[in-house]
């Protein structure tokens, strides 16, 4: 699949993977800020990152994706260098705010650029490849962080800054220049459609469940009596499996609509999260987590594919920015929810099981139909899927005859 992708797509995935290899600051921000500033630093970063996502979507109306990707990565690297050198509460919180404001600038641009560079029949695969590649790169980043942390927490910020700047340079050289595509009419007041609101609510519930598992899985394992090395090994094994199982799963489920796969898949994630909540044996807990990671790898990229398919082309950057805010909301919400319920994995399971219900809910208000929304779009998508399925079946038949 990798060789079949257009060169700009491979370059963009490579840039994001390179950047992810140094993604240490968010997991270790409390350590870098110190115990006296940890709460304030996390709050400032969360608010700034949420604003950064929105700003990235708005700027896509005026700037091409390549400019935002290069500028966002370079700005993040510069802010992280300031954080590595900052001393004192004011300077540290100021650097954290700057890092947060730059942190998500390139995310809507990445999603929009991939949507422009790939056809609808390949978007799910491309977004899934990006997601599983970032998961695997994150596992490698965790190993690098384990080596750097004994040298001092500020080294994490310095190396993270270096990978951002190198990724910005690679993006500047290898990403293609694109003309600016004017999005939402500037004089009009844009409002999210009912479909987008429903998708974002479902995405927020999914993000809450996902982050709850990632945040508390190591703690739950240690609480059940697992050796100290086991959480890291389990997380690394799951990350290594993700690209393989994700690709196999996407092949098997290629003929199903993304929304249906998301509804069924998140229900399975919810059941596995409850299995982790109730299982007391460490081997059972590890097996449930690995199964959870396998199912999650099959869902990688499907949320972005649904947004790209449903969004009017001119409004797509705003859709990506609005939907992406679900993760910004979920990050501070998860600790609050866990503290309120007193249950770790059960909270994740309940959040996952909300997703199918939200996706099945009727849309209250439709977005405006304009020149950006083509009524024949659904029919063309259906024809493309039929053509793709027929071509795949013909290829498989020919292969079996040989």
Explain what you see.
Helix content is 77%, strand content 0%. It has 402 residues and is mainly α. The chain has two domains: 1-177, Growth Hormone, Chain: A, CATH 1.20.1250.20; 192-361 and 376-397, Growth Hormone, Chain: A, CATH 1.20.1250. Helix 4 packs antiparallel against helix 8 (153-174). The longest helix is centred in the middle third of the chain and has 30 residues, at 194-223. The radius of gyration is 21 Å and the shape is globular.
How would you briefly describe this protein structure?
With 402 residues, this protein is an all-alpha fold. It contains 16 helices and no strands.
Helix/strand layout:
Blueprint: H1 7-20, H2 29-33, H3 38-59, H4 65-85, H5 89-103, H6 106-117, H7 120-148, H8 153-174, H9 194-223, H10 230-252, H11 258-278, H12 282-299, H13 302-310, H14 316-341, H15 345-360, H16 377-401
Comma- or semicolon-separated keywords:
16 helices; 0% strand; 402 residues; mainly alpha; Growth Hormone, Chain: A; 2 domains
Tell me, rounded to a whole number, the average pLDDT.
82
Overall geometry comes to globular
Helix content: over 70%
CATH architecture of the largest domain: Up-down Bundle
Please provide the count of β strands.
0
The SSE string, one letter per element, is: HHHHHHHHHHHHHHHH
Radius of gyration: 21 Å
Helix tally equals: 16
Helix vs. strand class: mainly alpha
CATH topology-level name of the largest domain: Growth Hormone, Chain: A
Q: Just give the CATH class of the largest domain.
A: Mainly Alpha
Q: Calculate the terminal CA-CA distance, rounded to whole Å.
A: 22 Å
Instruction: Name the CATH homologous superfamily of the largest domain.
Output: MFS general substrate transporter like domains
Note the main sheet: none
Proportion in β-strands: under 5%
Low-confidence stretches: 365-402
